[in-house]
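Entries read sequence, tokenised fold; example below:

***
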Amino acid sequence: METENIQNQKPPTQEDSSIENVDTVATLDLKPENISPSESVVHLEAEQEYHQESQEKDTSINDTTEESDDKPSSTPQSIDNTITLLRDQIDTLQIKFAERGKHWSREPSLIISVLALSISVVFSIIGLRQTFAEDIEGKQETLRQTVVELTEIQSEMAQIAQQYSGNPLLYREANVNLNTRRAVLLDTAETLVEELGDSVDPSTLLSLAWQFQIDGRLEETREFANKAFDLSKSVLLQSAALKGIGSSYMTTGSPIHDLEQGRDALRRSTELFESRDNDLDRFNLADNLLYWANLERMNGEEQMADDLLEQATNAAKGINILHPGRQTILMQIQQAQNNQISQDFLDPRGEWQLTFANDSSKKGRVLIRFEQQSQGYFINMQVFSNGKLLENRTGSAAFLGSGKIIFQWQGIRYNEQSQTPLPSSGASILDVLPDSEELQGTDSAVGDEEENIILKRISP
């Protein structure tokens, strides 16, 4: 009987197999051709038994689809629902994939656009950097030229002193013009330094610091010397910068006068050479100590000055006796030990007219300015005879304890007839009176007789 039923059973069509064996179809990627007729009969019996159990337990279609292959779904509706669910899931995945689009590496137009943009950005950056570098280089060159012009003005001041030796009014006018030009150049330099930032050469900053020092602009001196120190990698430049900072604080009459701040800077300048064991560093150490001592003495700190001069002497004596700088620095220290500088003495800076009491045919000009030298003051003296340059002298000025100021100088003397240059040297000693507009004293050149001279202030 069972055999008859089996024989009378119609073989399942492809559609019936798909409906009755949804789990198998789902498992086999919806390929009903993989199911044989014998398997369909077995599955049909199992389906009826499973259908009764599913009604008793009232399970959902989703739970049914998760059962194993020997417990397939029973109703066409549940199968349709399952297939619909599967199709919806596939559609959802397809939509998500479509929304995601192609990978950027498979989009030629996108790649070309990105490359074009990248190349444009790179070339723009290169162009901007090149323009910036050219701008910096141009400003640096302008600043260097400005410093050169400031230096040349000093020479021009000496030249007009010779040109207008017999006409103080014309000399004053020319001097005012040069000082106006100098002020403009300093303002230009200050602006360029601000624009260049850290691209300024430290030596240029130091040169400008000295120019400000000459003008008495000590706040700018400190500012530029500080910047030079920060940018400098050279010990010598760092030392010079610290000396500039120290002098800006310790110069009498400075708007930022502060002895302790100045001493701190000068102490640091000497420490740069204390641990370095060679003749050049011993010389620099002695010179820094001498410079510091002179500033202390200008502030009336005699004991401090004497202690520093003793340290300078010990450093100088450590220099090899054959070193050319040894004797020079020892002589400068010896001279400084004889100086007794008081704040009551006049400030000798400025332009002075020189006359010789014994020879009315000889006249001259004396320029005295403060400079970063061991003696504190730099002098340029020009002597004329009958309107022709007779002698050009340069040297240093220092105060003596007896209320006098001494000029020690070296120079070039010209033969009055052939104008042949010959070396010369000597000293001028003048009486110093507070707030005096006239100095009187003697001038002694090597090989010449002592002459009486008078200096009258032309301009401060």
Notes: The domain at 350-459 is CATH 2.40.128.120 (Lipocalin).
